[in-house]
């Protein structure tokens, strides 16, 4: 599942983190340490468990994307089920490791999910335009709430930037899993333009903790 072209990426834990319980994480403990090196205004790491297909509990870590994660993002991006693009196809459209690094330094911010040190999902938004730029989850980790959690993190950041309406682009095919995923989470159709479906979501004032 992923909007746009890029989508549908490790920081050491702090030695003595401050632990907060935030509405966003639905009971998940969030560690924030402003003294750590990071990409973005604060470091956030959330841990939770999900059931794997064989019934085992799988530990998942959600944290903010850093420059060091970018190669992992691209490795994961080309392995998605829908809107699959090769590295060559991404590069032809101006999406490279260097361009994503530049975006993170200026307009974009994102979060990822790791399982056993492996990136299994990520999402990024554009704070300048209000776009949900990318959300992607590996096929074998779909249906475990990873995409929803990542989308919440990016949405909350975009709301905190002052946007009252955010948007994304996705495939025209409504039979794809991504379309139902967006509808279920409050996104609605806006228009069809240049071979893409534009969807939007309005801020209803139910803010979670986001940060700027």
How do the helices and strands line up, and which of them pair or pack?
Blueprint lengths: L17 E4 L7 E4 L11 E8 L5 E8 L5 H8 L9 H6 L4 H10 L1 E8 L2 E9 L4 E7 L8 H15 L4 E6 L6 H8 L3 E6 L2 E7 L10
Antiparallel strand pairs: 1-2, 2-3, 3-4, 4-5, 5-6, 6-7, 8-10, 9-10
Task: Please estimate the helix content.
Answer: 10-25%
> What is the assigned CATH homologous superfamily?
Gcn5-related N-acetyltransferase (GNAT)
End-to-end C-alpha gap:
26 Å
Radius of gyration: 16 Å
Shape: globular
Which second-level CATH architecture applies? 3-Layer(aba) Sandwich
Q: List how many beta strands DSSP finds.
A: 10
Helix/strand/pairing category: alpha+beta
Oligomerization status of the protein chains: single chain
The number of helical segments is: 5
In short:
With 212 residues, the protein is of the alpha+beta class.
Structure description:
The structure is a single chain. The chain has 212 residues and is of the alpha+beta class. It has a single domain (18-47, 57-202), classed as Gcn5-related N-acetyltransferase (GNAT) (Aminopeptidase, 3-Layer(aba) Sandwich). It has helices spanning 70-77, 87-92, 97-106, 146-160, 177-184, and strands at 18-21, 29-32, 44-51, 57-64, 108-115, 118-126, 131-137, 165-170, 188-193, 196-202. The strands form two sheets. The chain has a seven-stranded antiparallel beta sheet, with helices on both faces. The chain is globular and about 35 Å long.
Labels describing this entry:
212 residues, alpha+beta, Aminopeptidase, seven-stranded antiparallel sheet, 5 helices, 32% strand
